[in-house]
Amino acid sequence: FIYKVKGDILSRLPLVLTEVYKQFSVQHGLFILVIAVFIFFQLRISVGVAHNEVQAELERYYNEVRYVENQEEFTEEYLKKIDEWLINADNELLAYQEDNNIYQIQILSEEINIQRHVEDEIVKQRQYRQQLLKNKIVCGVVPQQEFQSVTGERMYSYEEKNALIAVISVIIVTYGIVSYEKKTHMIGLIRSAKIGYRRYLVKKIYSLILITFIFWIIIYGLNFINLLNVYNINIHDLQYPIQSIMTMQSYPLKISIGMFFVIKNLLRFILMLLTALAGFCISVKTSYKNGVFLCSLFFVPYVLDLIGIHIMKYLSVFYWMMIC
Q: Which one, of 64, 73, 78, lies nearest residue 121 by Cα?
């Protein structure tokens, strides 16, 4: 009964969805997806920015200024409060020094040092925003250390692992879209089918795009959620211009931080899709065994880069996915 119901459901599905089901069920695509997600969780970033007393105080400032309508006015008042506190603290320190209270001198001196560092950092960020305002770029107040980490070179090795997981998974699954029929000697029957071989290939391409999208949305969707959690990034901050991050001052596009991440990940999807289409073309034009060999050539530039021939990285899909 279960098989009958299953057969009835599959017979009513469009051919594209039937192909997707076949890849994930009959050809173990679902198993590969589960393995890819498992490896992702094993290699994901679990430690964000190290927080000291200065970072803790800055975090308090970021949390207070985040939802304020006029952030610059609030920042000005915030700096005045720090200045007032420092003046009072200096007077207290003089009193402790007169009393020779070494313990209180040490505690208060450390706190004064922390507040001076916080003030310097806030002033530096304010001056940066004022400088960009002259170029008509209205920046928001965002946690600099966290955003500089997720948009900088620190992510490269982590993104390299994600690229390996995504591309290898997609190649394995999408390559079987045509090669499976070749291996099981079904091509002759398909050529004689009513829909025709060309239409059959078009449906295969549609299913390939859908399968690539599923892998992309799961792997890079999990990746983005992981970054938000580990680096404690507030979604509200994603609305500000990308130039709000001080290391991104020279970024050519005037887009939001959120759009920056969207574009990065869309480029990765395009690279995954181009790789999948290349594997698909190989499987259409060659035999099963020859196709496996040719698909393995995707990894040659990456391996050559690893052993020191760095010029080859520019031919590696993993490199471009890493730096996107």
A: 78
Residue 291 pLDDT: 74
For 225, other C-beta atoms within 10 Å of its C-beta total: 10
Compute the distance between CA of residue 91 and CA of residue 262 in angstroms, rounded to an integer: 51
Maximum CA pair distance of the chain? 101
Q: Indicate the pTM of the whole model.
A: 0.83
- CA–CA gap between residue 296 and residue 194 (Å, rounded): 34
Strands (E), 87-185: none
Chain centroid, CA 288 distance in Å: 34
Locate tokens 């009958």: which residue? 4
Burial class (CB in 10 A: 0-12, 13-18, 19+), 252: exposed
Instruction: Please give the single-letter amino acid code of residue 77.
Output: E
> Which strand (E) or helix (H) includes residue 83?
helix 71-99
Q: Residue 247 has which token pair?
A: 């290391």
Q: Which two tokens stand for residue 140?
A: 């928001």
- Asked if 305 contacts 320 with a C-beta cutoff of 8 angstroms, the reply is no
Mean pLDDT of 53-69: 93
* Residue indicated by tokens 């916080």: 118
Length of the chain, in residues: 324
Confidence of residue 240 (pLDDT cuts 50, 70, 90): very high
CB 211 within 8 A of CB 275: no
Phi, psi of 247 (to 5 degrees): -80, -5
Neighbours of 44 (CB within 10 A): 16
Average pLDDT (227-242) is 92
- DSSP per residue over 241-296, as a string? BGGGSGGGTT-SS--BHHHHHHHHHHHHHHHHHHHHHHHHHHHHHS-HHHHHHHHH
Cβ proximity of 72 and 129 under 8 Å: yes
- 8-state DSSP, 312: G
